[in-house]
Amino acid sequence: MPILTRRHFLQGTGTTALSLGLAQQAMPQDPLWQPNSDIRVACVGIRGRGGNHISGFNRMKGVRVVALVDVDSSVLAREKKKLADGKYGEKTEVDIYTDLRRVLDRDDIDAISVATPNHWHALQAIWACQAGKDVYLEKPVSHNVWEGGQIVKAARKYKRIVQTGTQCRSSHGIKQGIEFIQAGKLGDIELARGLCYKPRQSIGKVNGPQKVSAKIDYDMWLGPAPQTELMRRQLHYDWHWDFDTGNGDVGNQGIHQMDIARWALGRKELPTNTLSIGGRVGYDDDGNTPNTQIVFHEFAEGPPLLFEVRGLPRNTASQKKGWGKNMDNFQGARIGVIVHCKNGYLRIPDYNRAIAFGTDGKEITRFEGSTNHYENFINSVRSRNIDDLTADIREGHLSSAMCHMGNVSHLLGKTHSKQELDTMAGKNPHTQEAWQRMHGHLVANDVDVDTVAGGVRMGPRLTMDPKTERFADDASNALLARNYRKGFVVPKEV
To answer: What is the pLDDT of residues 20-37, one digit of tens each?
Structure first.
């Protein structure tokens, strides 16, 4: 398919292949800013996480936020006023837009930071690379496996600096902890376990389409996603729990811990095998992503990676006390990583610490501290060296893709009885152990696997070629990408 530039979209659909080619050739390969001048940034998607982007960049010396992009006019007005009032550091006047493509046509903007919903990430990043802009891209970097690879291709082709928003990569505490175990200080690594035990209550259930505020450009909000009416109470945030726009908690919160676990294993390619066990249980609502899930990854060599999602609290009594304060933990971590080694384990319980323990459970040593992830991006924009990035887009693609691979197995899975799940999970000691604990967790929340609505799915054990990033069968490959709406197509040729 032809590559459509931003200017092509703004001028209409009637343009020639020649003009498209000339537009691409004219795209800048070098930064527009001059040495010692400010780097000018546009923040895209500013309702939630995007507010942190505005603050993070605007308070940084040598950086100016000059434009805001969002589909909600009320959010644009609010954040524009905050900047003008000095709520984000120095008082700043900014331009506001609902369409990113108008920003990308400006020659005086050097970089964009993206905090839009997942289904928009790839297209916005690719458009920006084609326009000669550098990109700070929130996690997960993609909505599906194929998209992530396309962003990497665009970043390399147009020589762009693209940083993934996995800020744990800028923690020297975590880095030192990982180097400690990779040096064999706790013996051989046997398993990396990612944990996302985070409270996720029901989002409710509606009886029909919901009205979207007139202040929101809903067509632009949908972008690459299917043209559907809003079928949940809340447009914002709960899109995470709809596969059309989100990736469940394995791809929301869990991408951070998936990334750290892969980092700890030193894996630089996708796993060769993946399977998922899980479901959306404990309530019946308008979400369709798992709130309880195990994802198991095996690599061509070395130890495996196991990931666990729990959205329900410790037990039914905890549901009455308050979910946030009553979640399970595993070896002292709720939202973190445990790297199991022959002579102990490394606990990474948050975004800037790593603590080593012996086989007796006693602490051996700890590592702490982080640097500014936004600052790392800006420093790399100035140096033009992707090796200066702590979280280059390739790293973000691999970790995001591993989340998506787990969800592919889930979507291809079938509901099974407790007895069947015992047998199938029991084929591997790691999945057996995780499944038995998961089942105990569900029982404590009065979830009967054999009778619960929707059931618990066991997905197929998928086989992936890490070189081609393709599965071995057509059914799985069909879920590597998606169908896009006209005007919002992630291009095959970037």
So the answer is: 232 333 334 454 445 558
